[in-house]
């Protein structure tokens, strides 16, 4: 039986009319129509709620969250979510939390439970610009990853992939990379669990704050 995969992307924010992650997700869905997909608003209250609802509706076997990272020229596999909100710019509803924990009683960080090392290797071999990143920022993407890992991380493979802007990495090519990443996830089985996550976090080599 085919496993159920939930893939989310974000809508526009920060003065842009598009988000590279929703462009890539539309293209990915053409290639893999069986995916369950959602576009989430860059709204720090609504996005986690809508994700929680999607998890309930889809009951997925794996979760892949997507977002864009302006200025990046590589696809970034995020190894770690940090328990902090420190928004550089407001969300689309004007909220700008500074130096606040996402969940006061949760750990300082949570590790992705996607098979990131394998995805990294496969995508490098396929000629993609790809890197492991230990820092997804302190904005919505990090918040959503933290939320997803708290809910699902120890049960099913869960993680986040940051894409460069569409002008820095063609949407078709990004979708091709994501398709290959999903194939790895489908092949790998359940890697969720503390040891898999810790391995991924340890191998993180590149991080950058936004
Ligand atoms: N990127 C932002 C939030 C939405 C998006 O696509 C981030 O990196 O946090």
Helices and strands, in N-to-C order?
Answer: EHEHEEEEHEHEHHE
Strand sequence of the main sheet, in spatial order?
Answer: 2-1-3-8-4-7-9
Question: How much of the polypeptide forms β-strand, as a percent range?
Answer: 15-25%
CATH topology: Aminopeptidase
Helix content: 25-40%
Distinct compounds present: pyroglutamic acid
Q: Architecture in CATH?
A: 3-Layer(aba) Sandwich
Major sheet size, sense and barrel closure: 7 strands, mixed
CATH homologous group name: Peptidase C15, pyroglutamyl peptidase I-like
Distance between the termini: 40 Å
Overall SS class: alpha/beta
Comma- or semicolon-separated keywords:
210 residues, Aminopeptidase, 9 strands, 36% helix, disordered C terminus, binds pyroglutamic acid
Annotate the secondary structure layout.
Layout: E1 5-10, H1 20-31, E2 36-40, H2 46-58, E3 62-68, E4 75-78, E5 80-82, E6 109-111, H3 116-125, E7 130-135, H4 140-152, E8 158-163, H5 171-188, H6 194-202, E9 206-207
Parallel strand pairs: 1-2, 1-3, 3-8, 4-7, 7-9
Antiparallel strand pairs: 4-8, 5-6
Helix pairs in contact: 1-5, 2-4, 3-5
The structure holds pyroglutamic acid (PCA).
Question: Could you give a quick summary of the protein structure above?
Answer:
The protein is of the alpha/beta class. The chain has a single domain (5-203), classed as Peptidase C15, pyroglutamyl peptidase I-like (Aminopeptidase), CATH 3.40.630.20.
